[in-house]
Specification:
Helices cover 2% and strands 42% of the residues. The chain has one helix and 16 strands. It has one helix spanning 126-129; strands spanning 9-13, 21-26, 30-34, 37-39, 53-57, 63-71, 77-78, 85-88, 95-99, 104-105, 110-117, 130-137, 146-154, 174-177, 183-186, 192-195. The strands form five sheets. A five-stranded antiparallel sheet has the order 4-3-6-11-9, with no helix packed on it. The chain has a four-stranded mixed sheet with strand order 5-13-12-8. A three-stranded antiparallel sheet has the order 14-15-16, with no helix packed on it. The protein starts with 8 loop residues before the first strand and ends with a strand.
């Protein structure tokens, strides 16, 4: 190869070997890791293994994850956005970059950034519980932007309730729950109330 090709993965073919493929050239220059596992710049589902799925959090108890950005090329790297790491998407307000990475990295250097998942609003049903957004990092490379998905799940825990939303039940009430978390309430008068 006389010139460095655009970003991507290429088949390297030996012209003197009857066209047989002898290897690949991966021209990736920047990599992001979570929990030591590489996070691809692609529209793929979030995962608890690489930290892009933050798991369960409540309005008062957030979860913070740390990510590592590594410059694996032999020339300096510059992050060009302000702020360097941005959160976009439907539930972007539920995720906050609490620690930004360094914006200039030398060859083979790395830096870290931290994201806090702290869900806002109510968490009363499946639609409200699942929160999704994306992380975008702009750089001075052909790979820019580096984008990956993140997600978290909002749950209600004791102490998170708004006092105006707490219901009063009759003495002798009976509570039960099914396999998907629907809570059923029965009073002495035979009335039934449920919450999903």
């Amino acid at each position: 190869l006389s010139l460095c090709p655009p970003t991507g993965q290429y088949e390297v073919i030996c012209q003197r070997c009857s066209g047989h493929i002898v290897g690949t050239l991966d021209n990736q220059r920047v990599t992001v890791f979570g929990n030591g596992i590489q996070i691809d710049s692609a529209d793929v589902p979030s995962s608890q293994q690489n930290g892009t799925d933050f798991g369960f959090a409540s309005n008062n108890r957030g979860i913070e994850h740390e990510f590592l950005l590594r410059n694996i090329r032999s020339t300096p790297l510059k992050l060009t956005n302000t702020p360097a790491v941005q959160i976009l998407g439907k539930n972007a307000s539920d995720f906050t970059v609490v620690q930004q990475p360094r914006t200039e990295l030398g060859d083979n250097e790395q830096t870290t950034f931290k994201i806090l998942f702290l869900p806002t609003g109510t968490c009363n049903n499946v639609q409200e519980q699942n929160r999704q957004a994306s992380v975008r990092i702009m750089m001075d490379t052909e790979e820019s932007p580096y984008v990956f998905n993140i997600a978290g799940h909002c749950v209600k825990v004791e102490g998170d309730e708004d006092a105006s939303q707490v219901s009063t039940f009759a003495s002798g009430a009976i509570f039960s729950a099914d396999a998907i978390g629907t809570i059923f309430y029965s009073s002495d008068a035979g009335m039934t109330w449920n919450s999903t």
